[in-house]
Amino acid sequence: MPEMNLEDRTIAEIAADMRAGRTTAAALADTATANHAAGDATFGAYKTWDAERFRAEADIADRALAAGIELGPLQGIPISVKDLYGVRGYPTFAGSPRELPAAWRHEGPVIRALRRQLAAFSGKTHTVQFAFGALGTNPHWGTPRNPWDADDHRAPGGSSAGAGVSLWEGSALLALGTDTAGSVRMPASMTGTVGIKTTQGRWSIEGITPLSHTLDTPGVLARSVADAALGFSVIDPDVSGDPEGFLAAVETADVGDFRIGVCEMFFDACDPGVAEGVRAALAELEAAGARIQSVDIPGLDEVDQIFRTGGLSAFEFASFIKDELPDFLEDIDPMVGSRFDKMAAMTASDYQSRLRRMAALSQAAHAAMANEHAVVGPTIPITPPKIADVQDPKDYMKANLMAARNTTVANLLAMSAVTIPVALDAAGMPVGLQINCAGGDDARAVAIARAFEKVLGTARQRLGTPPLSS
Description:
single chain, 11-stranded mixed sheet, 18 helices, 13% strand
């Protein structure tokens, strides 16, 4: 079959085309491979690309469909995977200059859920080394390029640096990332895609190289909320038993069904066009029937200070790397290594005290938002910086901390969250609207995001096409 134009087709529509014989998984893989061949030199989304394995997995999906074996809507769908996940047949580098030991190729429940539907993995996307960075930079393998700036190399967002880029390259229809302080939502926001951050513990982190065993959460990025919801329905253990019911509830959700709180702290010190873009989107949603009011979440200044002094991830990463991979400290990214002494210096007593304080702050925040279905604001307050402007460690750290300021709230306070693209800022770069829900309310967060998308449009409908996209 000829290559397909995938730009305006949802995953559900493509899956229906496959079952009707209008296309095949092999044709999808060929299109994705052609897009990758055309865009790889520009985008640099992938650490490992194996065209033969990718096509073989697509062929298996086709043979199963031809035999009448239908395993689910992601059968034969191209999915990129952050290079922290263990995937059979692929090395795991976790952003390091050398491959991790074989134990880190082990597939965990998230990958196994996709295997059960015979999804086709397009490859392993770049990550910040050991996922410890908000901008997406990696001195060992290069930094993927944000497709929204044709003139300058801008940050794609981290740590799932290649995930959002792979979607615009057209080499994947869904992307797997991980989120410890925003590492799904930051690249989604910076690249104008959708990102879902799950509640801690909801999706297993088995088979994923860790940064913080307390805060790490797997998640998905997609071109639309509809696609992200489909991926969520397959992976999420709480809804995968009745994915059709979940998806039906998501599709019938209306903006008028939800009480939305606007947290002004998220709007502080935004770069030009960021706050304005989010407020304009909220005005459209309110005009469409959303019930919107201001809400105050206590303790957010303290949450930010905890994050700026290492959160929990600094201590947990230092413990992991010293115990499991001590020799990898020899070639650690300087932007990661510069913080290592401070990470290792935290005492067990300090760590336990911080755990208790975060639990108290989480309880207070959840009480404050008890009358709201979600709390919203800009996903990231800054424009994705030019890579040339963050070469100095001080400039890097300033941008790194600001990029994660709003997203880390959901991690440290044990919430669920979704980001959707809603505007372009004054520099012409994407702006995300973040939807924070209580921990465990992941399905509601997805439903709210879909209700918003039906009013505001998808990224392609609202923002247009990135100048560098395929």
